[in-house]
């Protein structure tokens, strides 16, 4: 669908992507201006729609691009040979902090996408986010050493409890960010709070 855009030289692709990410991240889907995007990217509006078709398709392309960029680097860095579940999750938190510093604009775009309420893209985004979360959760759990968990409890229920705990922690922080003027997520605070939960959950569910 985006062959014409993907056939462009890398420098031009980057200019367009960076301009669009910046505009959508700062203003959200409805208020973002394609006029501002083409101005910053130094291309014509006709070319922008030639490459993407319309604003909605461009936005959804950017979401996929941003998510894949982060996911590719994340899975290159994380050691899935680490079979201790909590050590693996700790790795994930540290890697995410590192990627946040490396790609602040991309993370800002993804954060805003999670808050996006525009009826034009909300349904598609929710579907994409759910599918991606399910895929990534499966990868994070794959190959973990179940023998470290208590034998007097149902492993599936333990993993659900752990998952629900961190999902709720994430939801609370996202909600706080959504209500704040800047929509800024405090990843240092999340990392510290997650470590406190790691200690409690390890004591509760490991032998």
TrEMBL record:
Gene3D superfamilies: Homeodomain-like, Tetracycline Repressor, domain 2. Keywords: DNA-binding. It comes from the Bacteria. PROSITE patterns: HTH_TETR_1, HTH_TETR_2. Residues 10-70 form the HTH tetR-type domain. Residues 33-52 bind DNA. PANTHER family: HTH-TYPE TRANSCRIPTIONAL REPRESSOR SCO4008, TRANSCRIPTIONAL REPRESSOR. This is AcrR family transcriptional regulator. It comes from Neobacillus ginsengisoli.
